[in-house]
Amino acid sequence: MRVATISQSILFFAAILSASAVSAKDGVRATLHTPLLTHIAADTEIRLEWSLEDEHSGAPFSACKVFIRLIGPNGDSAEAFAGCGHESSMGRYQATVSVPKGGISNVEIGIAGTVTDREGNRERSDWIVPMSNEGATRSSPTALQNGGHCL
Known about the structure:
Blueprint: H1 2-26, E1 28-32, E2 36-37, E3 45-54, E4 66-71, E5 77-83, E6 92-98, E7 106-111, E8 114-116, E9 122-124, E10 127-129, E11 137-138, E12 149-150
Parallel strand pairs: 2-11
Antiparallel strand pairs: 1-3, 3-6, 4-5, 4-7, 6-12, 7-10, 8-9
């Protein structure tokens, strides 16, 4: 069991280093493709679509544990995972997430990770991807429903 934990830790840190290298070297960016509505009632489920791509080449970036987090004006948040990216997804994702109390004031797209200390305590540590269209909100209604999965 200890070997599995060590192997998982090594793989995790290799993934973090790879993600950091990609971020620093290539500049991965997220683009939100679904207009955000600022006046949606709390607990309403909405389907959001986004993509991850290299900001210089435009090449798609596929990953597992990709999430979107909606943050309300009072700090409440809700998040949903899109699942694993597959070659056929071309770096595009979608997920259904509930609107937090107070509506939507900010959006974060990221890749979930964990950090394990020497005692074996695990803590979530996410990589938040910069967005190419921050503040992309609309005030008119739209119909957004469905489950989260890769496109």
